[in-house]
Amino acid sequence: MYAPHTERDVEQMLETIGVESLEDLLRVPDPIALKAKLDVVPALPEYLIQRRFARFAEQNPGVDYRSFLGGGSYRHYVPPAVAALAMRGEFLTAYTPYQAEVSQGYLQAIYEWQTYICLLTGMDLANASVYDGATALAEAAIMALAATGRAKILVSRTVDPNYRAVLRTYCDGLDVAVDEIAFADDGTTDFGALADAVAGNAYAAVALQSPNFFGCVERPAPRATEAIAASGTVPIGVVAEALSLAALAPPASWGAQIVAGEAQSFGVAPAYGGPYAGFIASTQEHMRRIPGRLAGRTVDNAGRTAYVLTLQAREQHIRRERATSNICTNQAHCALIATIYLALMGKTGLRNAAALNLTRSRELASAVANVEGVRLKYATPFFNEFVADVGRPAGEVLSALRARRILGGLDLGRFYPELGTCILMTATELTTSGDVRALADALQEVLRVPATV
Amino acid sequence: MSPQPSEAAGGNGGVALIFELGQEGRANRYLENAKPLETFLPPSLLRDDLPLPDNSELDVVRHYTQLSQRTFGIDLGFYPLGSCTMKYNPRVNDAVATRHEFADLHPYTPDELAQGALQVMYELERSLSSLFGMAAFSLNPSAGAHAELGALLIAKKFFKERGQTQRDKVIVPDTAHGTNPASAAMCGFKVISLPSDERGRVSVAEIGKVLGADTAVCMMTNPNTLGLFEDEIAEIAAAVHEAGGLMYYDGANANAIMGYARPGDMGFDLMHLNTHKTFTIPHGGGGAGHGPLGVAAHLVEYLPIPVVVREGSSFRLDFDRPKSIGPMRSFWSNFAHAARALAYLYANGEEGLKRVSQLAVLNANYLRVKVAEFLDTPYPENCRHEFVASAQRLRKEHGVRALDIAKALLDCGYMAPTIYFPLIVPECLMIEPTETESKETLDAFAQALQTIVERAASDPEALFAAPTTTVVGRVDETRAARRPDLRWRPATGQEEGSRPAPKK
Q1: Are residues B173 and B291 in the same domain?
Q2: What is the ipTM of this complex?
Q3: Which of A431, B25, B28, B376 is most buried by a 10 A CB count?
């Protein structure tokens, strides 16, 4: 309960208030007063709460399997200094920094986060975070709708299927249609189709992801970027694996005006899906349409450098129904974690981590490609994940791998019916050569047995 | 006055930016060295440079420790921020939520290998449903506003399927949180603002004037943001239902009703909770939050996916729900926060939660009575979890505003209350003490506030100058908005394609 009241405190306080009992303060009209017995988990002393959760924890054996899962959530090395700093109570137990004078530290950290995101994406400005990568894409689309006055969104099928689903959820609310562009045989967006689609000047935005959901690095063809520019469509770059930004040319390099992404890779735990840290970065022209909090640098009444939440006229607590978004709480603490991670890794460490991801994923790709019956689906350069075609239902193969305590990757048939024999495999700096061997050996065994279908 | 590197920034009492520190190549050895990037990818795909600073671990630790020391949290002092329920965040919650078996669990782990995580979600979902009288909750939304959006998407779909697309109005009391109208707008609804009566409540008579065939949803919070219980809620709900609309409960103030009343019994069809308020999840300086979305039986099939379901003794994520509005976020839930919320429920149980509400309301009333001795309280009756005071008289007599009082409180080591909200109270101070504060803390706070109010008469200039003990004085917000400086920029020439910093 964590309340400090003694019986005597309660009595004295009731007396000061001038009521007889607590019930006098809490009573509600009889017809709605709670009469039912509740079915809430039972109260436990603290040490038994820990034991209860230890029991739950034992029921997650998958956490210790050799894992090749990625697809929007990644296991990376996180220096212990990240948690030691981020879990400091001053950061952890603060609210949104409305009172700037006692929130300078957090506001500066947000300003640093915004800067890191700008430097990584090549954009002019970034917000203080949004819920995650998927909602970042949805909010970016809403920015483009406002910028263009158009009512349709175009998105590549190589964008993370969860992101596309969330985009559709948001767009349904606004009666905005979402159309998809197919992908070509090389596992990247069909840029010819893209160029044709935007030519009608009907789309507010076109969203492309790189590395895309298949891990392939996408590089929009000039024909496509020219068509996007000519049609006045807002190009949105999506980044689900933020570590790739340490190595790859940023979305700004092909003309993205808004970048919507997920910073989970920067020190934030996979945590069965959240909380993560979404970000939105954009060119200057979209500044007043960007949703959520923005920290700005200014001065105090003595001319000293100071930080403050700014451009609040965009936000719900000021503009109410005319706000750019309804977002209030964002993911500040996850963004703080990412900021500290980036500070610890530095340019040198981050680029090296990216190079290790490239190394391990190539080791993995070559090992599984050597297994009879497996081929790499696409020859396109990839970052840390790729598609392996195992020539039979992927679900069956993954299930057999699970029996060997291996999570072999993601069954792409779940999202792409035409890729039912394909597995999305991921390797990060944490993937060992032992892991790679184990997966290759297990695949060999599994595929040696004739398919059941 | 662009801040100079560390020397100057430190010189005026500030902390240099992380970008102004370090030396290239001062790397921490967390990983083995890899071959250069060019080994793996053609140069056309690689970026030219990455202008990030290299800092030693010690320098990074000092930097963020210094920043933490320039940040005020509950751990440092009383945080009476109205409607934000800034209660103590028990550390056991973090201990269980950050266990390796949860923290390192990948969201695509097959259900049968993640039964523990699923059970955590299931137990939380069932407990919340019972506690608030809902048929089911989805743990998908990431925060309160996110759940509001989900609820309105459900309403929109619900009416569309019934051929009632003319229902495009959302009724929101003038005391509502700003997210309510903003969420409504994100679903294409038009917002009708409903005036509160002289008792600070929504009346059946008043709502009757705006109900009709175009009513979609009425969004209310109960107790409302004045801290008052909407005592006509059952009649209001009946009237809205009679008109064919749905009732939505904004759960930001749920800390006041546990064990006493349930939104489901009040007649609400949809609701959200802010588990980062009522259920002690640390707010972390602005999130991450966690916004479970609850619905009555007739709306369960519309819940965002996935929903965790139990089959015999096992649990699974159910995605196959054809009428769902779809997913609202990348993955299933802010799971770590679901674990924290469940740990808090275990720490309390049903009786404990009831006690939480009792003491939250006791603390608010005790402080209200104390504050009423020297500051106007526009609604002088017993409140629930929070109350409002007004500095209107001080403003008229001495020119001292709610903002000045807020800033003076910072000098006393307190976080300021929520100010200028709700909008209907002039020079409003909205105060929510929560149940985790002791009588001594409330007494000391009331004393500090009284001293400030007295000073408004004797020395108003001192209040205009506040705060003076903080690391910076009042911040120039106008300048921040007029000449936005939202990021640091490398010195010219370092960053390809960079633009010159804005002139100051």
Answers
A1: yes
A2: 0.97
A3: A431
Of A41, A269, A334, nearest to B127 by CB-CB distance is A41
Q: Has residue B296 been placed in a domain?
A: yes
Domain identity same for B335 and B362: no
A415-441 pLDDT, tens per residue?
999 999 999 999 999 999 999 999 999
Q: Which of A131, A316, A349 is facing B30, going by the closest CB pair?
A: A349
Contact (Cβ atoms closer than 8 angstroms) between residue A272 and residue B339: no
Q: Which two tokens stand for residue A414?
A: 């779940």
Residues B274 and B358 in one domain: no
pLDDT at A320: 81
Give a yes or no: residue B398 inside a domain: yes
- Tell me the pLDDT band of B502, cut-offs 50, 70 and 90: very low
Q: Does residue B55 sit within a domain?
A: yes
pLDDT at B11: 43
pLDDT above 70: residue B200: yes
Residue numbers in A near B331 (CB within 8 A): 72-73, 132, 162, 272-274, 276
pTM of the entire predicted model: 0.96
Nearest to B341 by CA among B295, B306, B289, B293: B289
- Quick check: B314 pLDDT over 90? yes
Asked if A22 and B117 come within 8 Å (Cβ–Cβ), the reply is no
> What is the reported pLDDT for B34?
97
Same structural domain, B371 and B344: no
CB B400 within 8 A of CB B391: yes
pLDDT tens digits for A49-88?
999 999 999 999 999 999 999 999 999 999 999 999 999 9
Q: How confident is the model at residue A453 (pLDDT cuts 50, 70, 90)?
A: low
Same domain, B298 and B201: yes
Q: Is the pLDDT of residue B498 over 80?
A: no
* Gyration radius from chain A CA atoms: 25
The reported pLDDT for the residue numbered B12 is: 58
Report CB contact under 8 Å: B71, A102: yes
Classify each residue of A108-132 as buried b or exposed e, where b means 16 or more C-beta atoms within 10 Å of its C-beta: bbbbbbbbbbbbbbbbbbbbbbbbb
Cβ contacts of B186 within 8 Å, gap of 6 or more: A142, A170, A173, A174, A325, A326, B149, B152
What order do you get walking across the sheet with B428-431 strand by strand?
Answer: B387-390, B428-431, B418-419
Pairing of strands A125-126, A278-282: antiparallel
The b/e string for B389-413 (b: 16+ C-beta within 10 A; e otherwise) is bbbbebbeebebbbbbbbbbbbbbe
Q: How far apart are CA B369 and CA A378, in angstroms?
A: 71
Task: Determine the residue of chain B that is closest to A303 in CA distance.
Answer: B1
Task: Looking at the structure, tell me whether residues B97 and B192 fall in a common domain.
Answer: yes
- Inter-chain residue contact B142 with A274, CB threshold 8 Å: yes
Residues B152 and B193 in one domain: yes
- Residue A382 Cα, gap to closest chain B Cα (Å): 8
The CA–CA distances, whole Å, from A12 to A16, B363, B371 equal: 6, 11, 16
Is the pLDDT reported for residue A43 higher than 90? yes
Residue ranges of A 330-359 with Cβ closer than 8 A to chain B: 330-334, 336, 339-340, 342-356, 358-359
CATH, residue B101: 3.40.640.10
| Domains, chain A, with CATH or none | 63-77+346-448 (3.90.1150.10), 80-341 (3.40.640.10)
Q: Is the model's pLDDT at A315 over the cut of 90?
A: no
Question: B145, A69: Cβ pair inside 8 Å?
Answer: no
For residues B403 and B410, what is the distance between their CA atoms, to the nearest angstrom?
11
Domain count, chain B: 3
Range of the domain at B37: 7-69
Q: How many angstroms separate the CA of residue A191 from the nearest CA in chain B?
A: 17
